[in-house]
Write a structure and sequence with these properties.
heterotrimer; A mainly alpha (705); B mainly alpha (266); C mainly alpha (152); A: mainly alpha; B: mainly alpha; flat
Chain lengths: 705, 266, 152
């Protein structure tokens, strides 16, 4: 009944329509009913995503893996831009790309296992967050605006994961950034919120600039920006490659190139990958550009859950996973990705230890988990990429859950989010308590929960790589996992255990949240519990997602390498390693939780002593001050720029403006000198006329005589 | 008959200080000097005039022209505006006589009736409202007397000089024609007089003038009628429309420059 | 005869130019609104004279120049009517016919024109009114009788 193409169009189209409806009618007609179009549309999108996943699953199973690399279904809609003969490279630079000199951007959507899984995750979390927002935002004057932005974001995000072209990817990359900006600054009357929105936007500019450069470099290197192969017919129309008799352009991630492994290596590949990684760093808040994400928590909590934990910030991971053949071509780039990921994970976890703002703890935890994902991507192996995607998937659930739980707490506490100002809420908010516990367990990586499986696969993937570099990263990851378990339960115990303490701001609001907010929590809690088991233990996540063309390419390369290894006589020690890593992971997680319980349940004398000791060593302040990245950036970037701006202002004000003013003064002075002539006495005007006439006649006579 | 421009230049040079001295604001001795200078300038210009054949015509012209011009100078220079108006009436009578001399009978009558009879008398009414004695300070002083007198005198000088130089050309040719054909001279005079009697100097002047006016220029007459009507309505509107307006009340619109200036002045 | 016609024209044009020039001087220098207007009428007369002279010179049987003068008179009448009405209004506003009162057209920041020196009023001519001679002699009064009266 529903074929893939219809579904592919329906998934982004529904939120777009809902956005337009809400934008037009929300303010005057819908008002407090503004959520209906968006909720209905996102529910429809979610159902369509499930159907699409089903279709893709069936189709991918049928696909003959020998003929093609992975499975993909591409839907070309229309040509957005076409520039003939835009490309003039020497023939020798690239045998494939130089044939096509036309620059084309086709609006194309694609369905493959990676994108369909992403679509399901995005729409599911979106749906739950949208429902949650009904309760959370119910009295806000900008109710309709909020849902308009949310709808726009969901449209952009679904398009981001389903487009099949780098330019369109960039377009929707920017679009989600815009929505993020709008939603961080949703309460723009608040100074911090508007400043945070600006900061997010500006920091992302740095990354997006790198991304744009990467896209340019891709274009000059490969001569196309499409993921898929395209065919140019004689009449000039471009369609998806189907028959052999037409001129085929090999897409960057298309079948032809993947089959032949025709990728650039060396400096160009490294440059492309690093530029793309810069973009991913901006969007996914990795180390040099991570500073915006904690501040983005100024936005409404559902936004933090949806955009800044579950979906948008994972766009970088998605993009790197999508481009894994490119990264596979450059070992240096892989190392950089892994290094950034590992460092970010550890650093963010260290910062999260001492934060007191519940949402900021979760924000640093998000950065840390994203670091985990990049670490896995940095391995460059199929297992690593699959692990990253798996962690992305489960993380979307449990981090969304944690944020929504934090929002629930914040809602009940009258907007207070500082963990030192409330405590012992487990009796007051039982549902929030239990669901938050589920989320914390998943994040900490306790065994049956989703986080355990995904984190375990990541550790495994890193462990499987050889060399000291990855060994260091592996132990970094293990320490990070310990810290993760510790700070997660620190926040949990501080919030829900200890003496019951309610801030005065809460008033008589201090009760469990309404149904629209609790039910998404319950659903997500169940998902956090089951996602790992179902997909990893009993499901075939691994087998399904490796049908993605990009990942299938990795699999084939891995097979080739394995064949060589087999020839060389290496024995596989994978199975033993798996159990060792798993055991380590379990122990670490329980250790972390136990430490947190030891320090934070009961009186907190020991932790206070440790904190004092750390403070004497200066470490506590370092962590509490977020490693002073904001200060460093302020010194290194903001102040010089401000100085330049001040200089430019001064030049503009006192040099350029002065020159302009001087030019303006000349006619003014002339006018001032002639102004007394305008005496208002009519006869002087008449006299002037007569004198002028005399001069005229006199000169005329002089000429004739 | 010398065509030297120096006569005109001299007349101009004499006329300008004459008018300057005569204008209000000078002492009575200065005015005497002005009269003397002005007479000299007028004499210089008169020396450039020509006889018009018949001595009766010539002397009539001389008398009327002198009356007109002297009255005109007096109009401009009198301190008492009522005197100004009366002198203008005299000047207009002189002009009317000059028009009669040129055969424009109807216009002469019209000038006397319309100007001297109607317009001037109305002005006199208005003058009576104000200070008719010439004691008002603004009647006893003049703007930029030197400059305006110079300007006027220079214009007169240029005009007369141009008239003389331009008219000197064809006259010579006419004399040449008359000299070259002495026999035909008397005939030519006869023909000329007959043509004049048929044309401008016709006996049935008013009849022909009227038929021309209401024949060829009928539309113009209608337009002039409309113009008179509009002027009438406009006059009524100006006077009646402001009847109720309080004195010295600036208009409401602040942005109007006139009104803001008026307010500041007030 | 031809030269006589030219002489007529020349004389009339000269007189017309003089009338025009004198009127111009009056218009430019006088400050009384009505006198200014009279000066303008005089300029018109100068033009009228020239036109009539040209009409005669060309022996125009259709009286073109005279027609023009007639219309000048008509327009002058209109002008006079409107001008008079305006003068009345202006006079009613300020109580004077001085043109210098109406100088609001000047630039915003220009100072208003103020007469620097107003000429002294000439001494009114002393008129010696005739004096009546004393009417008769004052009667002498007896001081005694003023002190005491035996009858009223």
């Amino acid at each position: 009944m529903f074929d893939i193409k219809t579904l592919l169009i329906a998934i982004p189209a529904l939120p777009l329509v809902a956005t337009l409806v809400t934008a037009v009618f929300g303010r005057r007609v819908l008002r407090q009913r503004s959520h209906w179009p968006v909720v209905a549309a996102v529910a429809g999108s979610f159902l369509a995503s499930l159907l699409l996943l089903n279709e893709v699953h069936k189709a991918a199973a049928l696909e003959d893996s020998n003929q093609k690399v992975g499975y993909e279904s591409v839907l070309a809609l229309w040509t957005w831009a076409a520039v003939d003969n835009a490309y003039d490279l020497d023939d020798e630079t690239d045998a494939q790309g130089s044939q096509t000199k036309d620059f084309r951007i086709d609006v194309t959507l694609r369905a493959d296992p990676l994108s369909s899984i992403m679509l399901v995750a995005v729409t599911l979390v979106s749906l739950l967050v949208v429902i949650y927002s009904i309760g959370y935002m119910h009295d806000d004057p900008g109710y309709w605006r909020f849902f308009t932005y949310l709808g726009l974001f969901i449209f952009s995000m679904t398009m981001l994961v389903s487009v099949s072209n780098f330019v369109l990817l960039y377009v929707f990359w920017e679009a989600v950034g815009l929505c993020s900006y709008l939603l961080i600054g949703f309460w723009f009357q608040k100074r911090e919120a508007s400043a945070a929105g600006k900061k997010a936007f500006l920091v992302n500019r740095v990354g997006d600039f790198g991304f744009a450069l990467g896209v340019f470099l891709l274009w000059t290197t490969y001569g196309t920006l499409d993921f898929h192969d395209t065919t140019t017919k004689d009449d000039g129309t471009v369609a998806v490659a189907m028959a052999d008799d037409e001129v085929t352009t090999a897409g960057v991630l298309g079948q032809e190139r993947l089959t032949e492994g025709n990728y650039k290596t060396g400096a160009v590949a490294t440059a492309i990958c690093l530029l793309l990684m810069l973009g991913a760093c901006g969007k996914s808040a990795q180390f040099p550009l991570h500073v915006w994400l904690p501040d983005a928590m100024e936005g409404p909590t559902p936004v933090s859950a949806l955009i800044h934990a579950a979906t948008m910030v994972t766009a970088g991971v998605y993009m790197v996973a999508r481009c894994s053949p490119l990264f596979f071509a450059s070992t240096d780039a892989q190392h950089v990705v892994a290094l950034i990921g590992g460092f970010t994970a550890l650093m963010a976890a260290l910062i999260a230890l001492t934060q007191t703002d519940l949402k900021r703890i979760l924000a640093y935890s998000t950065i840390s988990q994203l670091g985990f994902m990049f670490l896995a991507l940095g391995t460059g192996t199929l297992v690593g990429v699959v692990a990253a995607m798996f962690h992305l998937f489960t993380h979307a659930f449990f981090k969304g859950l944690l944020f929504l739980g934090a929002g629930s707490v914040m809602h009940a506490m009258g907007g207070v989010i500082d963990v030192r100002r409330f405590g012992g809420l487990r009796r007051l908010m039982p549902v929030t308590h239990w669901t938050f516990l589920f989320g914390s367990l998943a994040l900490a990586g306790i065994i049956p929960f989703a986080g355990f499986y995904s984190k375990d696969t990541i550790l495994l993937a890193v462990h499987a790589k050889e060399g000291a570099f990855y060994a260091v990263l592996y132990w970094t990851a293990v320490v990070t996992a310990l810290l993760t378990a510790f700070y997660t339960f620190r926040a949990f115990f501080l919030t829900f255990y200890g003496d019951e303490q309610i801030p005065p701001e809460a008033g008589h609001h201090a009760h469990e949240s309404p149904g629209a907010m609790v039910w998404p929590l319950r659903i997500l809690a169940v998902a956090s519990l089951l996602a790992g088991i179902v997909l990893y233990q009993w499901g075939s996540f691994d087998g399904f997602i490796r049908k993605t063309p990009s990942l299938d390419y990795l699999a084939r390369q891995a097979d080739l390498a394995a064949a060589e290894d087999a020839v060389a006589g290496h024995e596989s020690v994978e199975h033993d390693a798996h159990f060792a890593v798993m055991a380590q992971s379990i122990v670490i997680a329980f250790l972390g939780v136990g430490l947190a319980a030891f320090f934070y349940l009961g009186d907190r004398k020991e932790i206070a002593a440790i904190a004092r000791a750390m403070d004497r060593a200066g470490l506590y302040r370092l962590s509490h001050g977020k490693f002073y990245f904001d200060t460093i950036y302020k010194f290194l970037v903001v102040w010089p720029l401000e100085g330049i701006a001040r200089l430019c202002y001064w030049i503009d004000r006192y040099v350029i403006d002065a020159a302009v003013d001087f030019c303006g003064m000349v006619p003014r002075a002339l006018g001032a000198s002639l102004r007394p002539l305008q005496s208002g006495l009519i006869q002087f005007y008449a006299l002037a006329m007569v004198l002028g006439l005399l001069i005229l006649i006199g000169s005329l006579l002089m000429c004739t005589l | 008959m010398n065509d030297s421009p120096w006569v005109f230049i001299l007349a101009t040079l004499l006329g300008a200080p004459a008018m300057w001295a005569l204008l209000p604001g000078r002492s009575s001795r200065g005015r005497m000097a002005g009269v003397a200078l002005g007479s000299a300038a007028g004499g210089l210009l008169a020396s450039q005039l020509h006889g018009v054949g018949d001595w009766v015509d010539s002397s009539l012209f001389a008398i009327f022209a002198a009356v007109t011009l002297v009255a005109a100078v007096a109009t401009v220079t009198m301190r008492n505006p009522v005197y100004c108006a009366v002198w203008l009436a005299l000047s207009l009578l002189g002009t009317a006589a000059l028009l009669f001399l040129q055969g424009a009978q109807f216009l002469g009558v019209a000038t006397v009736v319309v100007y001297a009879g109607a317009i001037l008398v109305t002005f006199l009414f208005v003058l009576m409202l104000a200070d008719p004695e010439g004691r008002a300070p603004y009647d006893r002083m003049s703007w930029e007397a030197a400059l305006s007198a110079t300007a006027g005198a220079v214009i007169v000088g240029i005009l007369t000089m141009t008239i003389t130089t331009v008219l000197a050309g064809p006259r010579k040719t006419a004399q040449d024609v008359a000299l070259s054909n002495p026999d035909g001279a008397a005939q030519a005079i006869e023909e000329h007089d007959r043509a004049l009697a048929d044309g401008v100097l016709t006996e049935r002047h008013v009849a022909r003038f009227g038929s021309e006016l209401f024949g060829r220029h009928l539309v113009a007459v209608q337009v002039a009628g409309v113009l008179l009507l509009v002027a009438l309505i406009g006059t009524a509107a100006i006077v009646a429309g402001h009847e109720t307006a309080p004195q010295e009340t600036p208009p409401e619109d602040e942005n109007e420059p006139v009104s803001s200036a008026a307010r500041r002045e007030a | 005869m031809m030269e006589h016609e030219i002489a007529w024209l020349h004389n009339y044009l000269t007189v017309g130019a003089l009338l025009f020039g004198i009127g111009l001087i009056g218009f430019l220098s006088r400050r009384n609104l009505i006198v200014m207007f009279l000066a303008v009428e005089m300029m018109l007369q100068g033009v009228s004279l020239s036109l009539v002279a040209w009409c005669r010179f060309h022996n125009d049987g259709a009286f073109g120049g005279q027609m023009l003068v007639l219309f000048i008179i008509a327009v002058a009448a209109c002008e006079a009517a409107v001008a008079l009405a305006l003068f009345l209004m202006l006079f009613r506003r300020r109580g004077t016919l001085d043109i210098a009162v109406w100088q609001q057209l000047r630039e915003e920041d220009q100072p208003a024109y103020v007469d620097q020196q107003i000429p002294e009023l000439p001494e009114p001519a002393r008129t010696d009114w005739p004096k009546l001679p004393p009417a008769g002699v004052r009667p002498e009064a007896d001081p005694e009788r003023t002190d005491y009266r035996d009858h009223v």
